[in-house]
């Protein structure tokens, strides 16, 4: 009880906002068991649970107490982040509804088509070209702000562990902005799917992803229709996509069903078969996209309503949306999912080798808590394995982590133009730019090669000399500036 009261008083002293809708109860963080010195524990926590220490962070954390600081980071709704909100207020396109982006895309396509028809016979063609360009420009600016805002939040937010988890899930449930119209759906995907569910129940997040137009479009489930011979028509004329262009359905599509099991839940060795992939794909037929507004839509005429067997469990016939919901229930609560998700968390926060004992211990927490992400994460980041000599400075930063940590070390704030996020892309990790659905790798060997190291050192030198475009750099200690170009800075 004294711990709870103390944390509430502490939060009040830090200026925690009283207007937040959620109010997570604090998790009691026990005294850290570690073979590291206390100063090393603090350094490790700032390196691994944030995107890198800012000037003065170590002193502030030491004054607060490591265990209390971790408890607050695990309850991000208790942390005042009004400075970040103030900075993001200038990002005027972040809240653009998907239906408006859909309309812009439709307008751009219509103007371009009309321009082609008019170009040889009227003076209207230049006006049509201007209209199409304006719509495309608005879409480009919106996407650029989403990418830049992700970088800005990571650099300036006080809710650092939360931002780490937003990035973790965006990578786990990866979509590629360069595929077709996926980019149109990404603003809502991050804003309405990933961010609200990053520290909640895994089943809730999984369901939100499964119904997100970004995922449905990227992995082709919006096109998936029951094969001929089942209860529904196999030759339904399917109208999908942001432009309202129709195309004939080609039957069952297994792409999302396969990645749902292999990448999102069970893992490649999770115990499913090709028959399970087919059955899951059948269960998810009809999970599609509304062509006008770009929202999730269930289409009964496309759904296979026959009986199905998924991982040994029967899905009774004659149903619709319930089939997919039951599949998500089965997968979210499967022991292989607990292990797969926990292992990825351990790789992200502890070490590439993912100590098996820690994975086993925290997988049990995942199962017992019904997939509570916060409780599972707490198990990982308060463990002796996390605060071990073997884990200390044992992870290589991804390009995104490298850039953000440099911004934080120098007191820099990225602007809301594409220039800041383009730095990350030039280092090899464009935001929302992974073509394959497996997400960006989180292992050292994927990022450590001669060319990459040269680019990183050059970035450090540019950053230290204030020559990075689009970045406002604060007062930089010469020692910090020199540190940015050293190999040691590449690790966390």
Number of helices: 22
Report the structural category.
Answer: mainly alpha
Strand tally is 8
Task: Name the quaternary structure.
Answer: single chain
* Shape estimate: globular
Q: Taking strands numbered 1, 2, ... along the chain, how are they ordered across the largest sheet? A: 1-2
For the biggest sheet, the summary is:
2 strands, antiparallel
Rounded to the nearest angstrom, the distance between the terminal CA atoms is 35 Å
Order of helices and strands: HHHHHHHHHHHEEHHEEEEHHHHHEHHHEH
Query: What Rg do the Cα atoms give?
Result: 24 Å
Give the % helix: 40-55%
Beta-strand fraction estimate: under 5%
Write the SSE topology:
Layout: H1 2-13, H2 38-48, H3 57-64, H4 66-73, H5 82-88, H6 98-118, H7 125-156, H8 160-172, H9 182-197, H10 202-210, H11 213-218, E1 237-239, E2 246-248, H12 255-264, H13 274-283, E3 287-289, E4 296-298, E5 308-310, E6 313-315, H14 321-332, H15 335-349, H16 356-368, H17 373-381, H18 399-410, E7 413-414, H19 419-426, H20 444-447, H21 450-464, E8 471-472, H22 478-483
Antiparallel strand pairs: 1-2, 3-4, 5-6, 7-8
Helix pairs in contact: 2-3, 5-7, 6-7, 6-9, 7-9, 7-18, 9-10, 10-14, 12-13, 15-16, 15-17, 16-17, 18-21
How would you sum up this structure in a few lines?
The chain is built from 22 helices and 8 strands. By secondary structure, it is mostly helical. Mean pLDDT is 86; it is low at 1-21 and 231-249.
Task: Describe the 3D structure.
The chain is mostly helical and 492 residues long. The chain is 52% helix and 4% strand. The chain has 22 helices and eight strands. The strands form four sheets. The chain has a two-stranded antiparallel ribbon. Helix 16 runs antiparallel to helix 17 (373-381). The relative contact order is 0.11. Residues 1-21 and 231-249 have low confidence and may be disordered.
């Amino acid at each position: 009880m004294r711990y709870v009261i103390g944390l509430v008083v502490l939060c009040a002293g830090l200026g925690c906002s009283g207007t937040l809708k959620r109010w997570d109860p604090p998790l009691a963080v026990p005294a850290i068991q570690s073979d590291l010195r206390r100063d090393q524990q603090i350094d490790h926590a700032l390196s691994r649970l944030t995107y890198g220490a800012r000037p003065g962070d170590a002193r502030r954390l030491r004054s607060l107490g490591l265990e209390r600081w971790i408890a607050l980071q695990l309850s991000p709704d208790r942390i005042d982040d009004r400075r970040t909100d103030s900075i993001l207020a200038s990002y005027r396109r972040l809240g653009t509804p998907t239906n408006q982006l859909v309309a812009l895309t439709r307008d751009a396509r219509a103007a371009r088509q009309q321009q082609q028809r008019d170009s040889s016979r009227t003076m209207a063609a230049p006006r049509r070209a201007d209209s199409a360009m304006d719509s495309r420009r608005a879409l480009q600016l919106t996407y650029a702000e989403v990418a830049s805002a992700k970088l800005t939040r990571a650099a300036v937010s006080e809710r650092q562990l939360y931002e780490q988890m937003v990035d973790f899930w965006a990578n786990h449930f990866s979509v590629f902005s360069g595929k077709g119209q996926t980019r149109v759906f990404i603003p809502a995907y991050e804003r309405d799917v990933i961010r609200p569910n990053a520290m909640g129940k895994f089943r809730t997040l999984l369901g939100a992803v499964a119904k997100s137009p970004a995922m449905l479009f990227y992995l082709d489930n919006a096109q998936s229709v029951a094969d001929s011979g089942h209860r529904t028509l196999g030759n339904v004329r399917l109208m999908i996509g942001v432009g309202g262009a129709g195309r004939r359905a080609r039957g069952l599509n297994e792409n999302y069903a396969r990645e749902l099991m292999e990448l999102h839940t069970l893992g490649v060795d999770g115990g499913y078969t090709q028959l399970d992939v087919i059955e899951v794909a059948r269960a998810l037929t009809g999970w599609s996209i509304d062509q006008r507004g770009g929202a999730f839509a269930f289409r009964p005429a496309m759904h296979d309503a026959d009986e199905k067997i998924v991982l040994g469990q029967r899905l009774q016939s004659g149903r619709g949306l319930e089939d997919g919901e039951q599949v998500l229930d089965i997968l979210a609560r499967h022991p292989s999912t607990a292990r797969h998700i926990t292992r990825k968390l351990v790789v992200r926060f502890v070490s590439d080798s993912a100590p098996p004992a820690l994975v086993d211990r925290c997988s049990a927490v995942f199962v017992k808590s019904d997939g509570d992400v916060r409780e599972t994460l707490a198990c990982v980041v308060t463990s002796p394995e996390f605060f071990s000599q073997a884990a200390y400075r044992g992870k290589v930063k991804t390009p995104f982590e490298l850039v953000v940590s440099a911004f934080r070390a120098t007191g820099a704030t990225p602007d809301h133009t594409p220039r800041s996020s383009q730095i990350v892309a030039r280092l090899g990790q464009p935001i929302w730019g992974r073509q394959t659905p497996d997400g960006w790798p989180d292992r050292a060997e994927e990022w450590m090669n001669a060319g990459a190291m040269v680019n990183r050192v050059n970035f450090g030198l540019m950053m230290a000399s204030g020559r990075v475009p689009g970045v406002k750099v604060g007062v930089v200690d010469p020692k910090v500036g020199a540190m940015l170009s050293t190999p040691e800075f590449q690790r966390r």
